[in-house]
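Handoff note, outgoing to incoming analyst
You'll be picking up this chain. Sequence as last confirmed:
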Amino acid sequence: MNLFPRILAAAALATAVACAAEGTPAPQQAAARQAARPQAVQSQAVQPETVQATQPATKPQKKFKLGIADITPMGEKTEKVGVGFPIIVTFDRDVPDKAAVESVLSVQAEKPVEGAWRWVSPRKVIYRTKTYWQPYQKVLFKAQLSEIPGNHKARNVSRRFAVGAKHVSLVDTRKHVMKVYRNGRLAKKIPISAGRGGMIRNGVDVYLTTSGVHLTMGKKAVETMTSSWMGVTDPKDPRYYKEEIPWAVRISDSGEYVHQSFGDYQYLGRSNQSHGCVRATPAGAKWFYQISQRGDVVKIVGTKRKLQWNNGWSYWQLNWTQWKKGSALRAAQS
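Most recent structure output, in case you need it:
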């Protein structure tokens, strides 16, 4: 059973990994759709006409109402999240004064830890902590939008999150093993096979698994993976594939998953043979799927391809000083 909802990828990336699922929008297409959205008018100025001297030259400007289109993750009654989880807030229009908006956003945790907001687009801001959240607690997010000047008719929004167990997985692509730690203790060692490399696109070997701190973003009991990401859609092409992959847990926007190996079990624990995903044994992949929460940490080491910080929920790729530079409020105060 899928314990948390699937999310759509939003980060714009230059390359993709061969494990990309069927129906996943290309980054360029996603960006184009974003650009095509109608932009809200912040204030509508009225051009003056010939009037009596006692009349004002212009009418008062109309107020706009900024609202929230989406909050990720879901609330405490829907899912439990991992200790690396970000709070992703998407507004219903471009934000004209990011510092003013950021000032009315608050995060209150039962086990407090320092955190900061970072703007990643004109209408999206992300909250990340300095260190991982403590497990087994509740975190309350509030957006007092009515306190923004000129936005007093807006609806205030809040959401409470439930943090579950601390899951941190270490994937060593050289030793071909994934070690899963639960609350600091080794829970399972799973033989794996990572990306074999060998396909260079725009100077990047897209067949290599990316090294860095990933977060789990979603999962499906069966995911359809195809070769369409590299423009191969003809079944007669020897490079073509379309496979139904069990126990797929997504860890990046570029199509990387931890999933059950589609055959080739002889390579697990011995060599890297995938198109970029982390393949696991049937039993290991199913177990990992069952315990996974969105926001669990998956740290991958051993490859020359570095994970980009904006590839999915890979925000831990930025150090704390770098992350804080994305805060509009801190920039306004400095």
